[in-house]
From TrEMBL:
It is found in: Membrane. This is NADH-ubiquinone oxidoreductase chain 4L. Pfam families: Oxidored_q2. The keyword Transmembrane applies. Keywords: Membrane, Mitochondrion, NAD, Translocase, Transmembrane, Transmembrane helix. It comes from the Eukaryota. It comes from Agriosphodrus dohrni (Japanese assassin-bug). It is a multi-pass membrane protein. It catalyses: a ubiquinone + NADH + 5 H(+)(in) = a ubiquinol + NAD(+) + 4 H(+)(out). The lineage of its organism: Eukaryota, Metazoa, Ecdysozoa, Arthropoda, Hexapoda.
């Protein structure tokens, strides 16, 4: 039952990530949700085999760095464009 819940978490996050392409904030939130579901799977995997949880700390560090980088890009985009709409961006005139 717990594995099915994690499976549903991953695919619902993937569905939102693929469908929300207009706003950068929703895309970043879905990426964080995907990372949270992978963290959940990794915790279950390492717990079932009795391994150390040091790799989870490294993975959590990378998740935090990815979130900080995404928020930095979001702030830069809002300051330059006025909103987080990706559809209004041009590749050449950014």
């Amino acid at each position: 039952m717990i594995k099915f819940c994690g499976f549903c978490m991953f695919f619902s996050g993937l569905l939102v990530f693929c469908s929300m392409r207009k706003h950068l904030l929703l895309t970043l939130l879905s990426l964080e949700f995907l990372a949270l579901s992978l963290y959940f799977y990794l915790f279950m995997f390492l717990g079932n085999f009795g391994m150390n949880y040091y790799f989870i700390l490294i993975f959590l560090t990378f998740i935090v760095c990815e979130g900080a980088l995404g928020l930095g890009i979001l702030v830069c985009l809002i300051r330059s464009q006025g909103s987080d709409n990706i559809s209004g961006l041009s590749i050449l005139g950014w």
